[in-house]
Specification:
The protein is α/β, with parallel strands linked by helices. It is built from 19 helices and 11 strands. Strand 8, helix 18 and strand 9 form a beta-alpha-beta unit. The longest helix has 19 residues. The radius of gyration is 24 Å and the shape is globular. The two termini are 43 Å apart. The structure holds S-adenosylmethionine.
Length: 449
């Protein structure tokens, strides 16, 4: 999903746009589904008005990023929780005030006018009284948020997540992860291994800046989205966070290898693995790239359709796609039915996880997590690794990758795996993320011969 950047200060909100933003937030309040699903499920995919789409998406995601603080503000000025329409309207107004405090008077007037036209007179009066207090409430909160607990509210994270990070990384690092998660995410592109990609990136070098320490990744400047559409269409670029390259580069499969990509959909890392094998085919003595094979496994028709779409341009590295629930059904049976091998030189497992490393990009995920989710994910991850190991050749390597920065899902899973499989050695670590990358876990488990 493309996340919007901050709104221009002089943007003119129409009532229709506000109504849509309020509808998104109301929908989330009633049934807190994933933000992507709510954005896709309402009008957004069909609406042609890009600015309106951007404004709605921005307001919605800013509400989610600041949910604890906005809820404190609403609770401070209303005895009972306001009804759903009114509550969503107050949340949207609060998000805009937080984004642009200097513009508060105009924002308050716009929303009060909107309340007059769309709610009862009593509710509009209530809005007027409450919204005028929000700017100073937020200002005071910021100035007085000296404790770690208050800062967790200010930076929009549930306290139990903040505490986990404080215990693991220390207070300063925990605060800096939370602060980073509050900024609207940038868009990054990976340059694909494709004839013409270098020239296409060169032509767009004014909007694409290389990311330090992440070879092949570029940050897209604001407003550049329309211009890169042809690069995506022509297969020169893929929208991907730089952190997604870490585990794939650590594995760096040779050209000609058989690679099993587990939990592969929609296929971002699989496409990178294919590109790495093509790059490696240029090394002296390497096997031709077209002897390489990636078998991509994921479950469900929708995820598999995305994977198929992503691989449709790949015409050098062979690809077999297998729809299989690798926890609840036989992977061996599914591979056999698809005509895929049962032994691999390298396995990439991009396991489902808590997503704790990508909470900036997915602000809704922080509010779905609970303390027990980390160990529940870890048990599934370990069972997936145990299953993956059965398909690995002697001397082969498994890349274990997560979008989590939690020790329980990263180092602890690897340690549990090594206890069960002493013939493996491991390297890798948790990356907490940076200004230019999400957090992740990336490990290589190598079967000793
Ligand atoms: C982190 S995502 C994978 C992203 C993917 N590797 C990529 O780079 O585009 C995790 C994937 O695990 C898949 N998954 C979760 N449980 C699974 C299971 N039991 N069997 C197969 N796939 C599963 C999900 O469908 C999801 O696509």
């Amino acid at each position: 999903m493309q996340q919007s950047m901050s709104l221009p200060a002089d943007i003119h909100q129409t009532e229709k746009t506000l109504a849509e933003a309020v509808k998104l937030v109301r929908q989330y309040n009633i049934s807190p589904a994933k933000a992507d699903e709510i954005l896709a499920g309402l009008y957004l995919l069909t609406d042609k008005n890009r600015l309106k789409r951007r404004v709605c998406q921005f307001i919605f995601l800013t509400v989610l990023r600041n949910k604890p603080l906005i809820e404190s503000a609403i609770a401070a000025f209303s005895k009972r929780r306001p009804k759903s329409d009114l509550s969503a309207l107050l949340q949207c107004a609060a998000a805009e005030i937080l984004d642009n405090p200097e513009n508060s008077p105009k924002i308050v007037n716009t929303y009060v006018q909107f309340a007059k036209n769309s709610l009862s007179l009593g509710e509009a009066k209530f809005c007027n009284a409450v919204l005028r207090k929000f700017p100073s409430f937020f200002q005071d909160f910021k100035e007085r948020a000296l404790s770690f607990e208050k800062k967790a509210v200010l930076y929009g994270h549930p306290l139990f997540i903040a505490e986990r990070w404080r215990r693991r990384f220390g207070e300063e690092a925990a605060l800096s992860i939370m602060q980073r998660n509050q900024r609207p995410s940038k868009v990054y592109l990976r340059k694909c291994f494709s004839q013409g990609a270098d020239e296409a990136f060169e032509r767009n070098s004014d909007i694409l800046s290389p990311v330090d320490a992440f070879e092949g990744f570029y940050a897209l400047s604001r407003g550049g989205f329309e211009r890169i559409a042809p690069l995506l269409k022509d297969g020169f670029a893929y929208i991907q966070d730089p952190s997604t390259g870490i585990a794939a580069r650590m594995l760096s499969p040779k050209s000609g290898m058989k690679v099993l990509d587990l939990c592969a959909a929609p296929g971002g890392k699989g496409r990178l693995l294919a590109d790495i094998m093509k790059e490696n085919s240029l090394l002296p003595g390497a096997a031709p790239a077209d002897e390489s094979l990636i078998v991509s496994v994921d479950k469900g028709t929708r995820r598999m359709a995305l994977l198929r779409d992503n691989f449709k341009r790949e015409n050098i590295v062979k690809n077999i796609q297998v729809d299989c629930d690798i926890v609840n059904s036989s992977l061996a049976g599914a591979l056999e039915s698809a005509g895929a091998p049962l032994e691999y030189d390298a396995i990439f497992l991009d396991a489902p996880c808590s997503n704790s490393g990508v909470l900036g990009r997915r602000p809704d995920a922080r509010f779905r997590l609970s303390e027990s989710d980390f160990s529940a994910c870890a048990d599934i991850q370990l069972s997936m690794l145990n299953m993956a190991e059965k398909f690995l050749k002697d001397g082969g390597k498994i890349a274990y990758s997560t979008c989590s920065i939690d020790e329980v899902e990263n180092e602890a899973v690897v340690e549990r795996f090594l206890k069960l499989h002493p013939q493996f050695s491991a390297r890798g670590s948790t990356f907490t993320g940076s200004e230019d990358s999400d957090g992740c876990g990336a490990f290589i488990l190598e079967r000793l011969t």
